[in-house]
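Q: Protein A?
A:
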Amino acid sequence: MSVKNTVAEKLEEAFSFLKDNFLLQYLLRIITDISQKMKDSLNIAVAGATGYVGLELIKILSKHPKVKIVYLCANKSAGKKIQTFDKRIIKKNLPVISKVQNINWNKIEVLFTALPNGEAQKIAKIIPNHIKLIDLSADFRLKNSKLYKKWYGINHKSKELINKAIYSVTEFSKKNLHNHRIISCPGCYPTSIQIPLIPLVKEKMIDLESIIIDSKSGYSGAGRGVHKAYAGKNLYESIKAYGVGFHRHNSEIEQEIKKITKKNKFNITFTPHLSPMFKGILSTIYIETKKSVNLKKINNIYKKTFKGKQFVKIKKANTLISTNDVINTNNCQISVCKTKYKNKYIILSAIDNLIKGGSGQAVQNMNIKFNLPETRGLV
């Protein structure tokens, strides 16, 4: 153990008694931040290690200079090496896969959960307060437990923790990440949609009654079960609409728009499609602007909003972007295109659904939470 680690741990131990004193919370946070900076690495665990998002997360974290992976968890694969599931993970000294219940919570500081919906909320109830939970499921995305039940068909088992979590599209939430122990990462479709849409909503530039969104995703977005579900249906050479009019990602998109507008009346029609490619999302967003708004003003708002934000790339107007432009990156590319109709524009947004729409955004959130450079491990 290095001297830096020893000093950092002593600092945390010496001030642990302050945790229950509300007046000293701010001081405690500063001390925690300082001690974290002094550490050689963050000790982390990944639950849901063998899913598509989990494997991408491990690939990123295994190369992150400030991370030590202590546990890789997948209950049905305990005892196996992670390379069994993805030979591209070349780091040799990774732990053998174990069960979540075998984690010694005192040995980690960050837990990533890339589990089916309903699982992270159970774990959140039992982990100690010193652990930061970064969840990639839907368990803490919706602030209303009744809406969660409506859209996901599950009674929420940690209702008391919902309001302690932050829903984090990183580009919009980074200033508030330090105030929350649970970070909820958005869904892949909502990430590709909200990054280009939210700046225009904030500036009141568009008609909220006529937003149409058409998104196409690689089949990895449906999880490993997609191959069985689509057996005999020509998954690899066809495109299929699903969740038409009622896809559950509608819920978090609408929730975040309501936060900005404070209105219940708006009309977003969202249709996702499963495409014959492994990964990537291309969202096509049809908007009608206010009369005073033109293409140049839209692009200027984007440039202003995303100035200095490494992972959002605003392309020249009318650029026809594709998923190939963003695959294996944490980038979101945006292009605004004109139409033959005045005040009607088409916005193209492309991301890698497993990285910017999943694992990459989770690591981006972790970096900010622990005062690391936002791009660390991602470029």
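Q: Protein B?
A:
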Amino acid sequence: MNKLKEYVDRSYSVVTNKRNLEHLYTFKNFPVFFGCTNKSSNEDIVADMVWEIDPESGMIQLSKLIPLDLLYMEQHLNPLGKTWNEYNEAFSEFVINESKSDIIEIGSGNGMIANLLLEKNPNLNLTCVEPNPTFKEKSRLKIIKSFFTSNFKEKLDTNSTIIFSQLYEHIYDPQEFLDQISFFLPIGGKMVFAYPQLEHWFKNKFTNAINFEHMMLMTDYYVDFFLENSGFIIKEKISYKNHSHFYVVEKVQDPLANRGFIKENRYSFYKEMFQDFIKHHTDMVKKINAKTQKSESPLFLFGGHIFSQFLIQFGLQVDKIINILDNSPIKQNKRLYGTNLEVVSPQILRNYDNPTVILKAGVYNEEIKKDILENINPNTAFI
């Protein structure tokens, strides 16, 4: 493995812009890519994941960011299953109900939301601004292969509704991103978006809550603050299950020259939550190791993604693990980046009498467990 030498500096608070961050914890030599690869492990790159906290606002964030071309070197997100299908349906329905104009989607990923919107509204014209699209243009669907900036004002209809889904938590400068959208939209312009309930995920110790991609603890408390600074008011805000927040906002003025002050400092609350997160995973991995080392059962780890990389970072012993399991075809028969473990379909469990699966996949645990027990191997045990 190779150690990353050049980072993107963010040693200042994304809330106050002050360089007074307090160090919390460093994960040494963490894989920079969260997906699977066919490349040699000799090409893997690792980096230090340095978590710090703003003493004036409580924002937890990375101070050293991974260059985007490394972080997203290949497509690794392929959301599958009941949880994601229901989310996509719910958010697309929310957008249709809130938008009566054409739509510009920022960060369209695999095009799932875009295609659902086109199905729901036969009169809709939709433009997707996406640097790495995995889908193609068709009738009523245009693709611009790029990152979004306010420069699109001369190319696109500013009366369109701006939407994005599961994107905001990945943005390196959350205030600048909203400013760019605000500069693009006219007064009265509308934006509809969704992002994960990271505070709930973090509080409940979901392993994928914070990482190189979720590089700050982006909670609705901070989102509301950034929106106000960029000239937006919140028209509607709902919680979708324990999964995501849905917002409808309207531009009422240009971004503020003098940024507002955060109304409440959540330093103590979020710092304690972070310390609990670290302790929980440290203790949990020790217990998993104790169980697996005593067991003779064929052992598998679920998730060709950040879930597994985090467990290994916390000290998960991998010597007995036969394979990593994942339902995504784009991950199967590849190696989880940063490891020597091959990713295969969960169908392989059919070949074993009493297999054991290490499963720590947050909100997706029950769905995964149910599928394995009901459709693959009812004799599977889970840790």
